[in-house]
Automatic annotation (TrEMBL):
Protein name: Prophage Lp2 protein 53
Organism of provenance: Lactiplantibacillus plantarum (Lactobacillus plantarum)
Biased composition (Basic and acidic residues): 147-161, 177-188
Comp. bias intervals (Low complexity): 162-176
Region (Disordered): 146-191
Top-level taxonomy: Bacteria, Bacillati, Bacillota, Bacilli, Lactobacillales
């Protein structure tokens, strides 16, 4: 029996990144006849791309109320869309009832498109150094610049002559006060002052961080995040994507701190013919899962995303906490840092340097 899945005529067929209000409407049919979905016990929307399955979202049976037979709505939640890049995706609807599981459609999954929003379009990089940060750095730097040397003290005036000797003669007048010494030179703004100022050392360090241990993934952070009600292989957990095309014959290391509450968990990446798994963090424990791999050309063509998942498919729901997801070149996992596009750039630093020079100082 041929099962089909179609968009309704007025349903959208694409959605922008970050949009959680758009609603897709589908029609499920079996051999051309609409299906009575109200008899289902569970309905699940599952999405994937050319690399395979990505994640899923349940559809409440109660949401069918008021819809035509065979119709159902899907309003993608933030957990379904988070981290997915613009591109073409495929969708299936799994309907579970007392008779078993029916998957719509029977053949090729239904295609839909995720498009960029305005924040994802090309443009100047928005850095994490704000105007207030810059003002604070200037004030800190100015407070550390050494003052000029104090001028020499003036010579002491000559003592006045002693008056003539007399029985009760008065003491002679006090000599004139010496001239005040010249004022010392004004302190100068030089490299010794500015470049050693803690605030500007911090700025320079930010730039240097982009040269070693670079995180090749975007959208990551080092704040411990907990996702509750994770089920299946890891439904609800985010996926991340490389900011640049990876290279063949290059060794890469993937790492992430994990705290799985109830099931063994690891990090994964898609390579040719399989999903590569990192070290396992046991249920109820915590630690850093790592995966070091040298990619082949086939692997490079297959790599699309990096994610966290259970080591086995689970039917219950449990919590997983994570932070510091990182992909870097080499065979050693180093401390987390953001992707260079998400921190102060060399261009931004050059602007600060130009501003310092304009004020009469220098910064190297």
């Amino acid at each position: 029996m041929a099962k089909t899945l179609e968009f309704t005529t007025k349903s959208p067929r694409q959605i922008k990144q970050g949009d959680t209000e758009t609603m897709f409407t589908f029609i499920c049919k079996n051999t051309g006849t609409v299906v009575d979905l109200t008899q289902a016990t569970n309905i699940i929307a599952k999405i994937g791309n050319y690399s395979g399955y990505l994640r899923s979202q349940p559809i409440a049976i109660t949401s069918l109320t008021g819809l035509k037979p065979g119709w159902l709505n899907l309003q993608p939640a933030s957990t379904l869309m988070a981290g997915l890049p613009a591109g073409s995706y495929q969708l299936e609807i799994w309907v579970i009832d007392q008779a078993g599981t029916s998957i719509y459609p029977s053949d090729t999954p239904l295609s839909f498109t995720i498009t960029n929003n305005i924040e994802n379009e090309g443009g100047d990089t928005i850095t994490t150094i704000t105007f207030d940060d810059f003002v604070e750095a200037m004030n800190k730097a100015a407070s550390t610049i050494a003052k000029g040397d104090k001028g020499d003290k003036g010579d002491k005036g000559d003592k006045g002559d002693t008056g003539p000797q007399g029985a009760t003669g008065q003491t002679g007048p006090q000599g004139a006060k010496g001239d005040k010494g010249d004022k010392g030179d004004k302190g100068s703004v030089d490299n010794a002052g500015l470049t050693t100022a803690p605030a500007f050392v911090k700025l320079q360090t930010q730039v240097n961080d982009s040269a070693a241990g670079t995180n090749l993934l975007t959208g990551t952070n080092n704040t411990l995040t907990t996702v509750t009600n994770v089920t299946g292989w890891g439904d609800g957990l985010p996926a991340y994507h490389p900011a640049e095309k990876l290279k063949a014959n290059q060794t890469y290391t993937l790492s992430c701190y994990l705290e799985p509450a109830a099931h063994d968990t690891s990090i994964f990446m898609k390579i040719a013919h399989r999903n590569a798994m990192g070290t396992v963090i046991a249920a109820g424990s915590k630690g850093i899962s790592t995966l070091t791999i040298t990619l082949t050309q086939e692997d490079v063509e297959a790599v699309s995303n990096f994610w966290i998942a259970f080591c086995n498919n689970q039917t219950d729901k449990s919590a997983v906490s994570f932070r510091g997801f990182k992909l870097e070149k080499g065979s050693v996992a180093t401390d987390w840092c953001p992707n260079p596009s998400e921190i102060l750039t060399q261009s931004d630093y050059a602007k600060i340097q130009a501003a310092i020079v304009a004020l009469g100082g220098s910064l190297s």
